[in-house]
Amino acid sequence: MTAREIGVHCRSRPEAAGYMQRNLIILVLGMLIFNGWQEATASQAPWRMGLRLNNQQARRSFALLPFARGATIIPVRQWARTNNPALLSTNRAVLPDTLRVLFLGNALTAGHNMPEVLTRMSRTGKLKIKATMRAPYGYALDNHMADISSRTNISHTIQDPLTFTNRLTWHAVILQEHSLVPVYGWQRLLNSVQRLDGAVRTARTQTALFMPQSRADSIFSEAEFLDRSEGAYRLVAQRSGNLPVIPGGRAWQMVEMRGDNNIQLRARGQLPTAHGAYLNACVMYAFLTWQTPLGLSNGGLHQINERDAEYLQRIAWELFVSRRGGVPF
């Protein structure tokens, strides 16, 4: 063995010891990081369903996932997508690309297929909405409670396209009562809302109330009728856990009191025209997404020209800004 080979052989032992020491340090650091990641993940688990748990925020300084939030600042900022296909968890953050909404009401909601109009007009907005309805003519909320089809619709779920082990419920179920019930029988409204809200909570989603337009009455004026109706909706919402109220009737009142553009919202008494249905859809979009409906399409209602659509969109946004709050997600 030459002198050079002997020198190399002598130096190889300390080099090998240093190599093993570096590997051991890397291994220990890796184990510490992995354990910290597991602890953070376990501590976060109850807070990841921010959307379904009415926007409960993470109370920890370390967060692996972004949380679904609804900003209460006006004007509202653009929604940020938080779904990550790589995170295959059944309780991941669920700020969706599309809000799934169920309407339970009657002809005041179903006029000109308002949920379909809302779905179409939202396609050009920042956040999409996929709305469906169960709204037979003349129905009150207690009819929906006794209707097996309505209760089945509340519990309906779809497969999560991002996670095969998860199913998605509605993001909101919106209830609309018969127009006479809040004015002449608010206790009946309270009973119906509380029973339906129980079914909605069981389905792991949330309830909102829709107050439709006022109507002519032999006892009260239209303004008094609307005031009593909103008072009943607000009282019932408060007694049912501070449910959000979408005051569509106030938008109708704003249009009719101003008399601009000669827009007709009513057909055959209280049923909505195409303009009335479009105004309801604009109000729904604002209160569901916290975004302005300005610039959206006519939702397939070709009776509405661009000028009328912009005017109704501005009315809906003005109402939302004045109330400073919508359906929380």
Short structural summary:
This protein has 329 residues and is an alpha/beta fold. It has helices at 3-44, 107-110, 114-121, 141-146, 148-154, 181-184, 186-202, 222-239, 248-258, 274-289, 306-323, and strands at 98-104, 128-134, 158-159, 167-168, 172-175, 207-210, 245-246, 266-267, 271-272. It contains eleven helices and nine strands.
Tell me, rounded to a whole number, the average pLDDT: 80
What structural category do the secondary elements indicate? alpha/beta
Supply Rg. Answer: 28 Å
In CATH's first tier, which class of the largest domain applies?
Answer: Alpha Beta
DSSP strand content: 5-15%
Main sheet?
5 strands, parallel
Total helical segments: 11
Residue windows where pLDDT falls under 50 for at least 5 positions: 42-93
Looking at CATH, the homologous superfamily of the largest domain is SGNH hydrolase
Distance between the termini: 78 Å
Stated plainly, the CATH topology of the largest domain is called: Rossmann fold
Shape: elongated
Integer tally of domains: 2
Pattern of helices and strands: HEHHEHHEEEHHEHEHEEHH
Proper CATH architecture of the largest domain: 3-Layer(aba) Sandwich
Q: Main sheet: which strands, in order across?
A: 2-1-5-6-7
Helix content: 40-55%
Q: How many beta-strand segments?
A: 9
Describe it for me?
With 329 residues, the chain is α/β, with parallel strands linked by helices. It folds into 2 domains: 3-47; 98-323, SGNH hydrolase (Rossmann fold), CATH 3.40.50. The protein contains 11 helices and 9 strands. The chain has helices at residues 3-44, 107-110, 114-121, 141-146, 148-154, 181-184, 186-202, 222-239, 248-258, 274-289, 306-323, and strands at 98-104, 128-134, 158-159, 167-168, 172-175, 207-210, 245-246, 266-267, 271-272. The strands form 3 sheets. A 5-stranded parallel β-sheet has the order 2-1-5-6-7, with helices on both faces. Strand 6, helix 8 and strand 7 (245-246) form a beta-alpha-beta unit. The termini are far apart.
